[in-house]
Amino acid sequence: MRDSVRRPWIVGVSGASGTPYAASVLRALLAAGEDVDLVVSRASRLTLLDETGHPFRDAHWREDLRRWLARGADGTPDAYDVEIAEPDPETGAGGGTVRHWPAGDLAAGPSSGSYPARGMIVVPASTASVAGIALGLSKDLLQRTASVTLKERRPLVVAVRETPLGGQTLRHLVSLDAAGAVVLPASPAFYAGAAHIQDLVDFVAGRALDALGVPHDLYRRWKGELGGAQRQS
Q: DSSP assignment, residue 115?
């Protein structure tokens, strides 16, 4: 039986390249019946526009999110049929719902430790967001929410997407690991028998969801048999 209090996973999308990773994570969370609170940084809106050709606007976030999540990693429009459900306006009850918070709203629900969240994933995580979270800068809602997640000892996954990694960023990542975050580079693997770009994207998204303990079927798991994925393809 689902909790009477809505307890969402918070998904933060920063300005790093890799918006298909965020889309895959969001689709899988909703498919699993999980509630989501979404924070899309200002910088990520430029990346999203560049990578998809579409904007993400606070006033039209539901329409823009639906179009984003429907798009395949190879650019195919309407590759997925995604429903963007709202929490019940009277009871707040959820179950596969999405709530959006503007990145500049530092008074938003997730900015407080008393807000009932399960944890957070930053995907993709830019080096700027990594630095801000590691240093506790709270320059926007994404950084603030990640800091709150750490202080409340809730799960935090940081899917960093950058290459090469400089020494300063590496030190910030070590600090996040020491603070209890899971540092998860957006590093696709090939043992799962990837045949398309979406398979590589889904592998990273699946590993991120593994770190949160959310069930999914995004990739073939290793079963200790060499060549097993190729035979299943």
A: S
**Count helices and strands in the chain by DSSP H and E runs:** 8, 6
6 DSSP 8-state letter: -
Residue 55 contacts by C-beta under 8 Å, 6 or more apart in sequence? 45, 48, 49, 64
CA distance 70 to 29: 14
What is the rounded distance in angstroms from the CA atom of residue 217 to the CA atom of residue 90? 33
What 3-state class would DSSP assign to 55?
A: coil
63-93 pLDDT tens trace? 999 999 999 999 999 999 999 998 887 666 6
CA pseudo-torsion sign 124, 128, 134, 139: negative
CA distances from 223 to 31, 126, 170 (A): 25, 33, 32
3-state DSSP call for residue 134? helix
Task: Provide the 3-class DSSP secondary structure of residue 124.
Answer: strand
Give this prediction's pTM: 0.94
